[in-house]
UniProtKB/TrEMBL annotation:
One matching Pfam family: RWP-RK
Protein name (Swiss-Prot/TrEMBL): RWP-RK domain-containing protein
First and last residue of the signal peptide: none
Region feature Disordered, mapped onto this chain: 92-111
Function field: Putative transcription factor.
Organism: Setaria italica (Foxtail millet)
InterPro entries listed in its UniProt record: RKD-like, RWP-RK_dom
Keywords associated with the record: Coiled coil, DNA-binding, Nucleus, Transcription, Transcription regulation
Biased composition (Basic residues): 97-111
Amino acid sequence: MPIEQAARELNVGVTGMKKRCRELGIPRWPHRKVKNLQTLIDNVQELGKETEEVDGHLTRIVVERLQQTKKLIEERPEVPLDEKTKQLSQACYKENWKRKRGSRPGQHRAS
């Protein structure tokens, strides 16, 4: 959940929430990291549905690994994402961007 929502539910200000987090060793609120991992899990599962016959077991392994990483980040927010997860995230983002850009009506590519 976003830090603003967490602060509201705890009935404290955002600044006080950030200060307390830093005191507890959480330098940054991990909402974006967790949200990114959930989006990545959803993207991999969607892709896995398309290629289930070919590499369904690989999809399950990747999803399980991503879910473990997400759980770890929720438990220990200061842990950085590993390089493979970052690369997978960038690849999915790039593929989604290409898909969106390619599906725009009225767009013509210059040769």
